[in-house]
Batch of 2 targets.
Target 1
Amino acid sequence: MTQTLTIVSNRLPVTLTPEGIHRSSGGLVSALEGVAPAGYVTRWLGWPGAAVADDAQPALFETLSRDHGCTPVFLPDELARDHYEGLSNSSIWPLLHSMPTYFRYQAEWWDAYRAVNQRFADEILATTGDDDLVWVHDYQLMLLPRLLKRARPSLRIGFFLHTPFPSSDTFRCHPDREDLVAGLLGADLIGFHTFGYLRHFRSTVLRLLGVESDMTTVRYEGHTSALGVYPIGIHADRFEREMDTDAFQQRCAATSAAYAGKRVVLSVERLDYTKGIVRRLDAIELVLSRLTPDQRDGVRFVFVSVPTRGGVGQYRELRETVEHRIGRINGQYATLNDSPIHFLHQSVGFTELCALYARADVALVTPLTDGMNLVAKEFVACQRDVPACAAHRAHREGPGVLVLSEFAGAAQELPNALTVNPYDVPGVADAIDHALAMPADERRRRMAPMRQRVFTHDAAAWARDIITDLRGRPSASSCPESIEAVAAAEVDGLALAHRRLATALAHRHRRVAVFLDYDGTLREIVRDPAVARPTAEIAGLLRGLAALPNVNLTVISGRTAADLTRFLGAAPEFAMVAEHGAELWSPSMGQWRQLDQNLDLGWKEHVYRVLELYQRSTPGTHIERKRTGVVWHYRQADPEFGKWKANQLVEELSIVAANNPVEVRHGRKIVEAASAHINKGAAVTRMLGEQPYDLVLLAGDDTTDESMFQLAADRPEMLTIRVGDGETRARHRLPTPAALRQFLRSALPRPIGIPTAAAAAAVIA
């Protein structure tokens, strides 16, 4: 059976004109030609680039699908403009390029962005099968992976970001930052050009969503996203073939005649503020100021600036600035024979571009920031050791020189270039002088390994690597808050546990004990622990469990008795255990009772003084005093700094613990020192000793709950569930508190239980 690889981009690789539909030959299109795995066909999905009348859409849809392998997503003009020129390019683009001063935002742009991403999701879901591959491209569609994963967990979804990803401090400027980052985490594989961008993304996930990650994986909402570094290449063979054509030779001859006797310094880019054009002109002006009039006549700076985003105000202003600056420089340094800067604000054909690359003595590629920058690689591809045409060979021996910004992704792949800091204008000017004076042997030594890299790691290899890794991801992933997906992944484990619990709850002659941790287990962790009150859903679930005559329910927490009373009520219909087992409240007693009589707590003040030192040195932390312990909270600290300090604190407190009856626990964003005689396992053992039970359910989320799970080692009547990631002795795992609540709610007998979806019931039955 044939499956589909759906390539999703903001624009389809076609252009609609009155004369017909023309297929694009851009780099991404070329890169993806012929890379579909065996048994797959490739289709493109995206906006056709223009508004299409409603009555014309069916016919165009059919033509694009049949003749071009494309699925169009039709958008009205205003929606497309607010999505593309608005949020995508006026809000997200400047932040991704670490230029928040260019950031603009309007609420209606965000509405349009969400609407367009949803339209793309709807079209993908309507035209793909469960086992197909979907590869989403770039920042215009950052919400799309999560929309798709929630609707169809079985889809394998890849996402590649063609821009940089900035530091978390920059990305957090966006009002919708959490939604954008969470949107990407719906993908099974997220690709970046460089490890630096990947590192920034992980840091942003940690700081915005509070989600810790491994080097190459992030788990969020029960779904695991793999992260990878995939530096994009060019279609190098296309440039190589072009240089052997008659058309190229003719164009080369014309180019050589136009620049006869001159050394050419070439810049090619979109006219974009990220490209550093103004600073580059400052460096060129400095170079010209150092030359005599005769020397200036021997150098020509050629700028090919491709028009882009004319509807965005900053781009119109940039063009005016650049044209004014070039006019001033040419006016100052022109000679009777020529002007030093030749500025083309237009696109050029492929053959002419190759001729310019081949003729150039120096390529000046100095963006302020760039995801990769393929111009650098295109120039390298056209720099043969022996120049490509006779006219060029007469002008220069050997290849040219690449001057490359250290802030372009390509700098990591092309270290033999002359690498410059584009903000250092004198440094760029010095590099231009060095490049123009560089002897042939050094030019050959620098260019040879770069050409090898460009031809070996080309666009097709880039695409194959990503598709291979995407296919290697699991064909079905856990859906957020979905018992169906979890049960499907662990049929003999969690589904059986659920069936055992549901059966026990439904038979009143069976005695069931349920012990549930609170924070991170029943209730999602929140930044301020003081506001973690139970939601109406949690309160209803606890009432439902407590109402069953054969169930003894206990909420067992590290919280103080005062916290639990404030959150769960002064007289709930279930038991509560505070401070990991120090105090107990039960409906039969009607009051709190201490379980920690005659404990030695003399160590508390010494520990408190240590914690005070860490509180002063770690902004965003605070200390909580408990009757049987002391807790250092670092949830509001910088996540990485807080974790580092926490590890230091654990080591220091371990020295205290060695000589005192104290246990040091490193839980979720806390370090707690408590009496070694108090833990949840001891409390559960004490409570279970009062009567026999047919089934015992124990659920928790961090190291403080492991003493409970340890009890189940040789107790088959015990069901243990770890909520979230991390090493555990628990037999089963659920991804989130929401998934645990659904697990419990769906096990309640009707009419007490809230019915779950029919699909979930079918899996559990």
Target 2
Amino acid sequence: MDSIFHPLDVDEPLPRELIQEGWRQRMCEIRVLEIAAALYLPALIVVMIVLGSLHVNPMFGFVVMAAVFGAFLIYVLSARDR
């Protein structure tokens, strides 16, 4: 049998181990996305309340809310590279 099949290398990961490691990485990415989504909604509400109490132009308010969304999006995309 050794002539047909090479003995397993102890340091070489098996395919199922590689699949499990990839699954762990994806779960970490999903957690970062969930945390960012959970923080985005309260941040959006706070920005809306502050801008509403300051009687700011609604167009400027939309720009600020888009900037907050962009900041959270950049955070999520940069967290994937860490």
